[in-house]
Design goal:
mainly alpha, two-stranded antiparallel sheet, 57% helix
């Protein structure tokens, strides 16, 4: 007999539930025996099922948090002009953006949500550039800011991935 999914493959194996012929390539081993893909129920976990509605909520929340965190980051950087403070403020902004966005979408996770968080962390840095004296000067300062923003993006992405 031929496999139901691969008509050119000979098989003697059948699904334990629906009795459909299956080959070893499309067989799914379950605790109760071999099943076809349909009967095995290989759906995504609900945590990783993200609808368009959740993406819109995440984008709105992440943008709001990016503006708020960027304003706070820029204000602190302007009031306390300590050069190394960016290495604390950028990850703090990334963590806050990721955490609040995660809460707003009921702790759902996924690559798309991680991208939203990463973009929001970059937007947060862009907001800081509107404050006086926050533009990086010199190659060391530019590299330092890139590292700080990278840490912020990393934390935002890991909270949502």
């Amino acid at each position: 007999m031929k496999c139901a999914y691969h008509p050119d493959v000979e098989t003697s194996l059948r699904c334990g539930k629906c009795d459909k012929p299956i080959c070893p390539k499309c067989m799914v081993q379950t605790p109760v025996g071999a099943r076809c893909r349909d009967c095995a129920g290989l759906d995504k976990l609900p945590t990783f099922r993200v609808s368009t509605r959740y993406y819109l909520i995440a984008a709105g929340t992440a943008l709001g948090m990016a503006i708020a965190c960027g304003a706070a980051w820029g204000l602190i950087e302007w009031l306390v002009p300590v050069f190394s403070l960016n290495l604390l403020l950028a990850p703090a902004a990334g963590y806050a953006i990721g955490e609040v966005t995660s809460i707003s979408v009921n702790r759902k996770r996924g690559t798309g949500l991680a991208m939203v968080g990463g973009i929001a962390a970059a937007v947060s840095y862009a907001v800081t550039l509107f404050f006086p004296g926050s533009l990086p000067f010199g190659i060391f300062s530019v590299v330092y800011h890139i590292i700080a923003v990278g840490l912020g993006i990393f934390l935002a992405v890991t909270r949502l991935r």
